[in-house]
Write a structure and sequence with these properties.
Blueprint lengths: L1 H20 L6 H9 E4 L27 H6 L2 E4 L2 H20 L6 E2 L10 E2 L4 E5 L6 E6 L5 E6 L3 E6 L11 E4 L6 E6 L5 E6 L5 E4 L4 E4 L20 E6 L6 E6 L3 E7 L3 H7 L4 H8 E8 L10 E6 L6 E6 L4 E5 L11 E3 L7 E6 L5 E6 L4 E5 L8 E3 L11 E3 L5 E7 L5 E7 L5 E8 L3 E7 L4 E6 L4 E5 L9 H5 L7 H4 L23 H21 L20 H9 L11 H6 L2 H6 L19 H21 L16
Antiparallel strand pairs: 1-2, 3-4, 5-32, 6-7, 7-8, 8-9, 10-11, 11-12, 12-13, 14-15, 15-16, 16-17, 18-19, 19-20, 20-21, 22-23, 23-24, 24-25, 26-27, 27-28, 28-29, 30-31, 31-32
Helix pairs in contact: 1-2, 5-6
Length: about 650
């Protein structure tokens, strides 16, 4: 009977897991109750449940027993231990206290249809706006301590914000153009916060230090190699980047070439100093090397371009890729396997291409957005059909915003409203019920970030602004001290506009220039004077005089139309209709009167030229007669007979 006991125990555990996942229709409160309580039969009497539990076994306000006959037939619930009862009591009392204080303004939302809902704390009672970008903000990254923020957009600029140095104006302290002509798609900080990696429209992600100074870039692959496993890097535009949560030297990158790569980078001081003496290609290969290549599966074994990527937030165990064919592919990068094929593959996970993916903190749920307007949630332990599907979430931006809250209670995403603007929705991770929505801006939201240390939500918008939602009681540091610092006022002299900074032409007359010069200062002064002299000569140089005659060479007196005619040969050329003999002879008189080259040396010794005029006239008459006869008898008159071909026997 040991087998039957094991079977019963397995069914019990399976039932418990389904309750916790909310797969059997159980309410969210009942699912949480199952984790603290167990059911036990009793012969008689009321259930031993405290009054603060909700009065399910006591009497209601109308004097009748709550639940009626069904309540009397229910099994009694008893806590497993006193610690569980005390913990549940503290949780309930805190929830009731928050409810009494008022959860309006986004601090606490309670679903009216579910009395067992605990409520969720969302810091969105106040807002601040950081401006600086001129186009859509497509990437937001916050360092681990929540002190600095890096944003990237489609204006090709990377902006860095420091909460410790900003005032109420909320201006960035550094702006970097990562790569000209390539928008920024993703930004990620290292676990220590001293470096950040940026993914752009090119195939080479860039790594910067904390102050925004360029360190190096990842190597580029060979696009003519068929197998990407033999390439040194990516060959197409980037999709996203992520840093390993615990390993400083491990970076994940995803590209539209159909691969994800795990990199081993070396950005210590010794390696950077050694790379200074190398070429750019050799330095990139030495500072970064691809440890593992993950290839996305496509139909018929072809490459499947990636459109979104995500990694585990705490363990770094999984790497997830959303593809253009709507499939989800997962790799267990923590395993010792060197295979490039995905460990989990779900074909047709969405009705269109995947636009955003995210994992929960415990790696149990996977949420994905697609261009069909759906938000789908999958179970990572059994990647098959979705657990929940939320429709009617349109987006006008190519790349949706999606994340999970730091406590794994909420999925946060944004959708574009029909009347304009964008709304941020908060869904419960257990039931996928909408617990709150917040209209953020007049333009669409293109990126989201929620940092656990400061408890503030950053929303990057298409109009180039970054909206920060916070709560004065729930949020900490971050943008709060910046709003309390007033912008420094300029004094009267600084406020005066002198038309720019005045130039000092004689610095040696200033007080700090008094005293004898050193030899180096004299050399520098001589060099500066020579440079000024050359500049004056260049500015006062006499213009070039035109060549003889007005308009010669196209410098003076020529019109634009004449220039175009001369350049493109639009002028009419009648020389082909002129008799060459007549064209030469018309210059005979001028050449005889004023010989220029050879004839002037033999002018007195050479005889007079005699032309065969009679022969020319006779030849001309013969041609005219032949022309008349051909017009009369046909073109074959006077032609030479054709040679007859001999037929072989």
């Amino acid at each position: 009977d040991t087998a039957s006991k094991q079977r019963k125990r397995g069914e019990k555990n399976k039932r418990k897991n389904r309750i916790e996942m909310g797969l059997d229709g159980t309410s969210f409160g009942a699912a949480l109750t199952s984790s603290f309580m167990k059911k036990k039969k009793k012969k008689g009497g009321k259930a031993e449940v405290p009054a603060w539990w909700g009065g399910r076994s006591g009497e209601g306000e109308d004097g009748h027993e709550e639940g009626g006959e069904k309540a009397g037939a229910e099994e009694e619930v008893v806590f497993e231990s006193e610690e569980a009862m005390a913990e549940e009591r503290r949780r309930r009392e805190a929830a009731e206290q928050r409810k009494k204080e008022g959860g309006g303004g986004g601090r606490r939302m309670v679903d009216d249809d579910d009395d067992d809902d605990m409520g969720h704390q969302v810091p969105c009672t106040s807002r601040a706006e950081m401006k600086g970008h001129t186009r859509a903000v497509s990437a937001i990254a916050i360092d681990p301590k929540g002190v600095r923020v890096a944003t990237g957009g489609h204006d090709y600029m990377l902006r860095m914000w420091d909460f410790g140095g900003m005032n109420e104006a909320l201006e960035s302290f550094r702006t970097v153009e990562v790569e000209e002509g390539h928008p920024i798609y993703s930004v990620a900080y290292s676990p220590s916060g001293d470096q950040l990696i940026v993914a752009t429209g090119s195939c080479q992600p860039k790594i910067y230090d904390r102050e925004g100074h360029f360190l190096h870039e990842l190597p580029k692959g060979d696009m003519y190699l068929y197998d990407p496993k033999h390439c040194k890097g990516h060959t197409h535009s980037m999709v996203g980047v992520a840093w390993h949560p615990t390993e400083k030297n491990t970076v994940y990158t995803g590209s539209s070439d159909g691969t994800m790569r795990v990199w081993d980078i070396h950005t210590d001081i010794k390696s950077l100093e050694k790379a200074e003496d190398m070429s750019a290609m050799e330095a990139s290969k030495m500072l970064a090397s691809s440890k593992r290549t993950l290839k996305a599966r496509g139909v018929g074994g072809k490459r499947c371009p990636l459109t979104a990527m995500a990694t585990s937030k705490k363990s770094g165990k999984y790497a997830v890729a959303g593809c253009v064919d709507g499939s989800l592919q997962v790799w267990n990068v923590a395993s010792a396997s060197s295979s490039s094929n995905p460990d989990m593959y779900l074909k047709g996970a969405a009705g269109g291409k995947i636009t955003a993916v995210t994992l929960t903190q415990d790696d149990t749920k996977l949420a994905a957005r697609a261009d069909d307007g759906y938000l789908r949630v999958f179970d990572m332990r059994k990647l098959k059909s979705p657990l929940f599907s939320v429709p009617s979430l349109p987006s006008l931006f190519d790349g949706d915003a999606l994340l999970s809250s730091p406590d794994d209670d909420l999925f946060v995403t944004a959708a574009t409203r029909q009347e304009g603007g964008s709304t941020v929705y908060f869904f419960d991770t257990m039931t996928m019920k909408e617990v709150h929505s917040e209209v953020v801006a007049e333009s669409a939201v293109s990126s989201l970030a929620w940092h656990p240390a400061i408890n503030q939500i950053f929303c990057g918008c298409v109009n180039g602004s970054v909206v920060v939602m916070y709560d004065e009681e729930l949020s900490h540091r971050g943008v709060l001290p910046c709003l309390q610092r007033k912008k420094k006022k300029r004094d009267a002299i600084e406020a005066m506009d002198f038309g720019g900074v005045p130039e000092i032409y004689t610095p040696e007359t200033l007080p700090f220039r008094e005293g004898p010069y050193t030899a180096e200062e004299k050399k520098e002064e001589i060099r500066r004077n020579n440079a000024l002299k050359k500049e004056r000569e260049r500015q006062t140089k006499k213009p070039e005089m035109p060549m003889t005659g007005p308009g010669v060479g196209g410098k003076v007196g020529t019109s634009w139309s004449k220039t175009v005619v001369d350049m493109f040969g639009l002028a009419r050329d009648d020389s082909r209709f002129e008799d060459p003999r007549e064209a030469i002879l018309k210059h005979a008189d001028a050449a005889a009167a004023n010989p220029m080259y050879v004839n002037h040396a033999y002018k007195d010794t050479q005889p007079t030229a005699v032309y065969d005029v009679e022969g020319a006239l006779a030849e001309q008459e013969e041609k005219e007669k032949l022309k008349e006869m051909r017009e009369k008898y046909g073109d074959e008159f006077g032609a030479k007979p054709k040679k007859r071909k001999e037929r072989p026997f």
